[in-house]
Amino acid sequence: MKKQLLYGIGLLLAGCLGMMQAAGRQAPAADLRIEGLRCEYATDPIGLDVRSPQFSWRTESQRRGVLQSAYQIVVARSQEELAQDNGVWNSGRIESSRSAGIRYEGPALSSKERYYWKVRVWTTDGGQSDWSAAGSFEMGLLDEKDWVSDWIAYVPGKPGRIIYFKGTFCQQKEVEKARLYISGLGYYEMYINNRKVGDHVLDPAQSSYDKRVYYASYDVKDYLSQENVLLVAVAPGWYGMPKLRMQMEIAYTDGSATTLTANHLRAVTTGPTVYSTVFDGELYDARLEAPDIYKPFVPAGLMNKDWGLAHIADSPGGKMVSQKMEPIRVVDTLTPKIITEPKPGVYVFDTEQNLAGWASLTVEGERGREITLKFAETLYDDGLVNQENLRNAKATDTYILKGEGVETWEPKFTYHGFRYVQVEGLPHAPKVGDIRVKIVRNAVAPVGKFHCSNELLNRIHRMVVATEASNLHGVPTDCPQRDERMGWLNDLTVRIEQAVYNFDFSRFYAKFIDDIADTQHEDGTITCVAPYRFGARPADPVSASYLLLAWKSYEYYGNRNIIRDHYDGLKGWVDYLASRTQDGIVDYSYYGDWSPPTQFAAAPGSAVSRDTPGQLMSTGYLYYCASMLSKMAELTGRDSDKARYAQLAERTAEAFNRTYWNEQTGGYAANNQAANSFALFLGIVDETRIPRVVKNLADDVEKHDYHLTTGNLCTKYLMEMLTRYGHAETAYRIATQTTYPSWGYMLQNGATTLWERWEYATGDEMNSHNHPMMGSIDSWFYKYLLGIVPDAEHPGFDRFTIHPYVVDDLEFAEGEFNSVKGTIRSGWSKKNGVLSLNVTIPANSVATVYVPSSRVGSITESGKNAAKAPSVRFLGEQDGCGVFEVGSGDYRFRSTLKK
Ligand code: BGC
Q1: In angstroms, what CA-CA distances link 217 with 49, 62, 233, 331, 632?
Q2: Backbone angles phi, psi at 52, to 5 degrees
Q3: Is the dihedral of CA 502, 503, 506, 509 positive or negative?
Q4: Where does the signal peptide begin and end (predicted)?
Q5: Assigned CATH topology for domain 788-896
Q6: Of all protein residues, whose CA lies closest to atom 5 belonging to ligand 1?
Q7: Averaged over 119-124, what is the pLDDT?
Q8: Which of 114, 306, 413, 749 is the 20 to 30 Å CA partner of 815?
């Protein structure tokens, strides 16, 4: 389609630069500000263990058409050196518009060293910024030899219990700097002098512990005093027997230093938590609390019956890696207002929102009284919680009172997926506030907003965001509630985009791709979930998410390291899939387009599609992956691989067409929505056949009374292809359905997060009520209703497109996406046949804006002929839109719509 534009894209950029230069304005430095310095996508990180970290920044300016032409970065060991431009690395002036994913290329960075950096830029119109304020980054422990601490554990073991490791130390001198490097498996929290270190919960992020163990780094100077009590609580979590490794490195103002290791914390005890498991919950007996634990006391000789001695333990096996993703935190607290009593003495709190986290209980009663909190997504008709769909997860917390006045408790090392909390055993009827709900997830920053005139779509949007937000617990989980909570790669293949428009995944995805790589065998096979807990090896070939994590991180965040670092593994997986072909068709499939409406399933109760051949999906994804790999080979300078994988892609497309194209029907395989939309999405349909395929696709939707028949993957392609090929109104009708199967149907049946099935189900079969895999409609809102689409040829939003599809029923749609360049806005409204389209393009970015219009020549921008407006260039007419190239700034287009 792009080909139809009047000018080639390459020429456009040059033209745009020329145009802006021609304007000849000299930018006063004061109007160009460099903000948002990030290193490896984090602000002033400590404990970084990436040897060539990547820098990024934002340019802020009030002017239009601000485009960086060059940058310069200086990295130094001190602020003083930095001020004198005298550092370990000075990039010199680099001619480039890039401002994200810029790799450090100076001499090797040293473990534990702190570095400062700054950047300045030049713009195409002759402007130059001042140096930015200094950013910083501090390296972590780069080599295993930097770890002087052993792993320790309480070897006799206390199954299911939290183990407390304790030590004390005194110091007389003044602390200059204190760093803590720590990991405790499965989950840990550290307290220094009875104060919890940091605000992470459920740390560390889960991983394949025999391959990689995450540690966190903290500045703990402010926690220390002369007498110090160090206490670390470690729970089984996803690991099993609690193990601890930590070292605290303290530098004193007199130049001396000391290091404390886990060996200083060898006094162990158990606490009041009688058991703690991820799926089942925690049992806490407050009568067992021993407040002395926080006091500077370690029993002499450990002869006290409550104490034992930790021993040096085997390493879990994996290398120590600094945790790069945002930690899990309590991100919000809700107070459920609805309390029912379906049975005498049994109270159910309704949070009115399905979510992931836990509850905090406030109660007063006699010693020994036992209170249970049962968590569930649904209720039985009688109002009691229904936990059947949690399978073997008990999802129950128990608190036993100590009987000393008002007691408030919440668990530490478990979490639940729930809307309802059923409380039993209370001494009296509860009141609002006795249960508070903590929302717990990786604290990725929200980056997107979407709002339109149809409240149903707004509700769907909120439902998808809430579902994504419920499924970020170290890995992108499939669900937060039952005995599963795994990072399923098939689901993620389509989740990535719905997720990146709503939250900043620049660090999370870089972590999760490592998890996948850790599952890879020498034969190239990866597993269905990462870290590998269950599922199959080799993974289903629809697990294109392995490549997509790298590709989308490049496309959206400009991250180049991720492709370079993972290239060999990605290639291994593609080679493996290629080795599993016969006549070009991949010879296996487990899930394919998983979980379509049940009448399109292969058998009653099955979630496998009846009409969409699994091998069609597998082969399509081989094509998709081979094409992506060819582009990655090109980017990393591997010319022969580029050609090789392009050929593999071509052969695979031929086999796909040879095997599944049906000349009689004019469609693929069963000529259903999934097969036809997938083929169109892949771009492998012969041009002469496209009209028939598109017609079949749209007709099939009409035949099903504007309902979808697709599963977790092809729903995305269905919505996108209908829109792209002239049937936006049809896609909109699917989006706004309220009868089964549809998102509106979920909402009408009380959903606040997405279901796993298109059907409402509550029994013990597969029916999670908080499952992100059906949420790709949300990326359709951003990419098609708002029209914000990145350009992989110019990654990191160096260039992008705004192409809104203005559907009849909507009066307006508006929203934004906070990209690595800054905030992009797109908002349109219709009134009396006039379309207003307001867009914001961040500085140092160029966008191609499609303005829908029936009279392209009469489009205006800020009241003037758009083609002549400053920083706007008319490119031509396409698909009923005037197409303009615009530089940074705010633009107000007006156009006439046919009526
Ligand atoms: C997961 C799904 C996944 C499926 C694949 C289920 O157990 O919850 O999200 O797509 O397995 O078989």
Answers
A1: 11, 38, 17, 21, 33
A2: -120, 75
A3: negative
A4: 1-22
A5: Maltose phosphorylase, domain 3 (2.60.420)
A6: 591
A7: 96
A8: 749
Question: Is pLDDT at 219 greater than 80 in this prediction?
Answer: yes
Q: Which residue has the tokens 């009172």?
A: 401
| Residue 318 and residue 211 in contact, taking contact as beta carbons nearer than 8 Å | yes
pLDDT in tens, 11-48: 333 334 334 343 334 444 668 999 999 999 999 999 99
CB 532 within 8 A of CB 209: no
Q: Which CATH superfamily is domain 328-442 in?
A: Galactose-binding domain-like (2.60.120.260)
Mean of pLDDT values over 809-836 = 98
Locate all alpha helices (DSSP H) within 737-888, ordered by sequence: 743-748, 777-780
Ligand 1: nearest atom to the Cα of 768: 8
The residues pairing with 448 across neighbouring beta strands, listed in sequence order, are 817
Closest CA to 683 of 721, 718, 710: 721
In sequence order, the 6+-apart residues with CB closer than 8 A to the CB of 90 are 72, 73, 74, 75
590 CA: nearest ligand 1 atom: 12
Once rounded to an integer, what is the mean pLDDT over residues 163-171?
95
> Which residue owns the Cα nearest ligand 1 atom 1?
478
pLDDT at 494: 98
User: What pLDDT does residue 292 have?
Assistant: 82
Three-state DSSP class for residue 124: coil
Q: Which residues line ligand 1 (CB under 6 A)?
A: 478-479, 484, 488, 490-491, 591, 594, 773
Q: What is the pLDDT, as a whole number, of residue 805?
A: 98
pLDDT above 70 covers a percentage of the chain that reads 96
Average pLDDT, the chain: 95
Looking at the domain that runs over 448-785, which CATH code has it been given? 1.50.10.10
Strands 135-139 and 243-252 turn out to be unpaired
User: Which of 390, 470, 491 is the best mutation target for the ligand 1 pocket, counting ligand atoms within 8 Å of the beta carbon and taking the most?
Assistant: 491
Top-tier CATH class for 147-322: mainly beta
| CA atoms of 784 and 796, how far apart (whole Å) | 19
Atom of ligand 1 nearest to the CA of 478: 9
Q: Whose CA is nearest to atom 8 of ligand 1?
A: 478
CATH of 2-138, one of 2.60.40.10, 3.20.10.10, 3.20.20.70, 2.60.120.10: 2.60.40.10
Q: Kindly report each contact of residues 530-539 with a partner whose C-beta sits within 8 Å and lies 24 or more positions away, as own/partner.
A: 530/208, 530/475, 530/487, 530/489, 531/206, 531/207, 531/208, 531/209, 531/238, 531/475, 531/487, 532/208, 533/486, 534/486, 535/486, 535/488, 536/590, 538/576, 538/580, 538/588, 539/489, 539/490
Please determine, for residue 297, whether its predicted confidence score (pLDDT) is greater than 90.
no
Q: How far is the CA of 333 from the centre of ligand 1 (A)?
A: 30
Q: How far is the CA of 416 from the centre of ligand 1 (A)?
A: 18
**Cβ–Cβ under 8 Å, residues 544 and 629:** no
Q: Among candidates 681, 721, 685, 680, which has minimal Cα distance to 701?
A: 721
